């Protein structure tokens, strides 16, 4: 709602938003809207909101803008930050698979990366809000359904059989998983000396 208000209030809220961005040394950027039919739109919205949180707090304090009903309290900000971290994992995976056509055998390691991230998150019960903890639990149930589908996929087993290097390394080394790469444009790489670039190419021998 705030994103809609900023964009469409061109004579008051939008100028105030741009001024607040400049005051904080940030490039003026509108908050994207969450669209149910657009991949990662929820993450894109939260990403800007978290990075521009001081700007949002700034314009909320201006009574003449009448934005008090959109105010976000401390607990809500904490929820947004936790959800942002969860959605970042899914955004990384989506961008990796959408850049090109990754090898089919890389599907399970990618899913393992997501599963490991969610599991670590669920283990931090004392730091996670119950709502976020529950959401991660539901996401893991959905992920488990995908695991069961690969188990019954002949195409997947054929691909794994033809790629014996991946198959033997992956199934004999349980430490093989995806870990975020610090290099820009490179999605998580497998610890069995296999790296996938943003175009889905592999350097596996």
UniProtKB/TrEMBL annotation:
GO cellular component: nucleus
InterPro entries (UniProt xref): RNaseH-like_sf, ZnF_BED_domain_contain
The protein's name in its UniProt record: hAT-like transposase RNase-H fold domain-containing protein
Main location per the UniProt record: nucleus
Keyword field: Metal-binding, Nucleus, Zinc, Zinc-finger
Localization annotation: Nucleus
Signal peptide range in chain numbering: none
Entry keyword annotation includes Zinc-finger: yes
